[in-house]
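Good day; I would like, with your permission, to put a structural problem before you. A protein sequence and the C-alpha cells that stand for its backbone fold form the material at issue. The record follows directly beneath this note:
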Amino acid sequence: MARLLEMYFIRHGNTGPAANDPIRELTEKGIVQALARREALGNPDFDLVLSSTALRAKQTAVLVANVPMEQVIPVETLYLPINKADEAALEVLFAKLMYAPLRTYREADTTGILDRYASDNDATTLRYITETSAQRILITGHAVMLNVIVSEVIGGDTDLILDTALDEAGGFKVTTDFVNGMEVSVL
C-alpha cells in the first residue's frame, strides 16, 4: 500500500511592526487567524512541524499544530536564502513587489533568486520528509516564498500557485501517495 502524505504550507498570521523583523510577533488578529486555520483544517494532528525561524511563523505553527514550541523544528532556509547576496536581492524584490502573486515575482526575477531559494528549500524539506515516516506535515513560512516552495515540491509552476496571493494564515495543501501524482489545493 502506498504511503499517503499530506503537506500543509501555511503563511504566518497577522503581525505587528518591529524594528527587528525576525522577532515580529503575531497580533491578536494573527492569533485568531491561526486558530481559525486549525479549526478549518479539522484540528488535525501533525507528525512533523517545520517552520521558518521567524518568531511569527513559529507562533503560527504552534497554534495551527497545537503543539509546544519545542516540537516546532526551525528551518533557516524557510526564512532567508542561504546565499547572503540572494538575501539582499530578495529583500529589494520584496520591497518593490510586496504581496504580489508569484507570477509577478517570476517576471521580475531576472537573476534566478527564486529558483535558487526553491532548490535550497526543496532539499531541506525532502530531507525531513524522507528521514521520517510522517504522513501529515505542517510547514509555516512567508508570503510568496511558500508559493515558490510548493512549486518546487510538486515539480513546477502551475497557474494555481503562480496566481494565488496567500492571505494571512492561508496556504496550500499538497497530497500525494507517491504513485498517482500530487494534488494541490488552496486553503
